[in-house]
Write a structure and sequence with these properties.
Blueprint: H1 2-31, H2 43-48, H3 51-84, H4 88-96, H5 103-114, H6 119-126, H7 138-162, H8 166-174, H9 179-190, H10 192-207, H11 211-215, H12 224-234, H13 238-258, H14 265-269
Helix pairs in contact: 1-13, 3-7, 3-10, 7-10, 8-9, 10-13, 12-13
């Protein structure tokens, strides 16, 4: 009886997937083959492989890589430190809370912080460097992006590190391994799934940023997300915007496949190689 009733419980799930995942992707794919007059064309795909859009794609990947790299650089030691603290769940909550704040509010806050008369420039003037143009630069864009995405990198890494069996680390040290060797051969490999999950949570959204690029980078940084917004809202070329979106979805699937992992369980880690 349970087996017969199970499909009924899955109906809302299938409807949600069909209406809000499959249907939008199919619609985007359909519009990608239309020109400005609504006629079938392959020009959008030909135009995407022009030098302009290829440079745009490489630029988007470069900025997404930098954001992800600096996020890992900050998140890994932070997550490791959290696992050693007494009130780690409280500290983790304090790190996650800023992610609940609206993205626009955080972005506008940094406009004030990095502005010519903001606290950042006042500090630079106080130490003798003088006022600098911090807003509308690559630095401000990457800094604010890392700040926004850092909780999504810390959380999966923390979960992976927190699940580590301390006996494995003790055994490594008992066998004469140094702290660096223990980290490289034991800690990092066993917690690599957390890093992969963090990369998915940061790299993929970083490819499609457009709010931060407009407000913080002043459109000096153009990403795939910015290009899609311009095609849909400025030039009204829905076909080209959909084509860029198709490639963005394709890139997302490739990244998810490349960073995917299977939990093999603790027994797998105990095998002697």
């Amino acid at each position: 009886m349970k087996n017969n009733s199970r499909p009924l419980y899955m109906v809302p799930y299938y409807l949600w997937i069909a209406l809000f995942v499959i249907a939008p992707i199919v619609l985007i794919g359909y519009y990608s083959f239309l020109d400005l007059d609504g006629k079938f064309t392959l020009d959008n795909y030909q135009n995407y492989f022009s030098s302009v859009y290829l440079r745009l794609t490489l630029s988007s990947f470069w900025y997404a890589f930098l954001i992800t790299f600096f996020s890992i650089l900050i998140a890994y030691p932070t997550a490791y430190w959290l696992t050693k603290t007494k009130h780690k769940q409280l500290w983790l909550l304090l790190i996650i809370i800023p992610s609940w704040i609206n993205l626009l509010l955080k972005t506008y806050a940094y406009i004030g912080i990095f502005g010519l008369y903001g606290p950042a420039n006042k500090f630079l003037s106080m130490i003798g460097i003088g006022e600098q143009q911090i807003l509308f630069t690559d630095f401000s864009f990457i800094f604010v992006s890392v700040y926004i995405f850092i909780p999504f990198m810390i959380l999966p890494i923390f979960n992976s590190l927190d699940k580590l069996n301390p006996a494995l680390i003790d055994a490594s040290r008992d066998l004469g391994a140094s702290s660096w060797m223990t980290f490289r051969k034991v800690v990092f490999p066993l917690a690599i799934n957390g890093v992969k999950s963090g990369v998915q949570a940061v790299f993929i959204p970083a490819l499609s940023l457009f709010v931060i690029t407009r407000l913080i980078a002043g459109n000096k940084v153009i990403t795939l997300g910015t290009a899609i917004e311009q095609q849909f809202l400025v030039t009204q070329n829905w076909g080209m915007g959909s084509t860029i979106a198709v490639f963005l979805i394709l890139f997302m699937f490739i990244i998810m496949m490349a960073t995917g992992q299977k939990d093999k369980g603790g027994a797998e880690h105990g095998k002697v190689k």
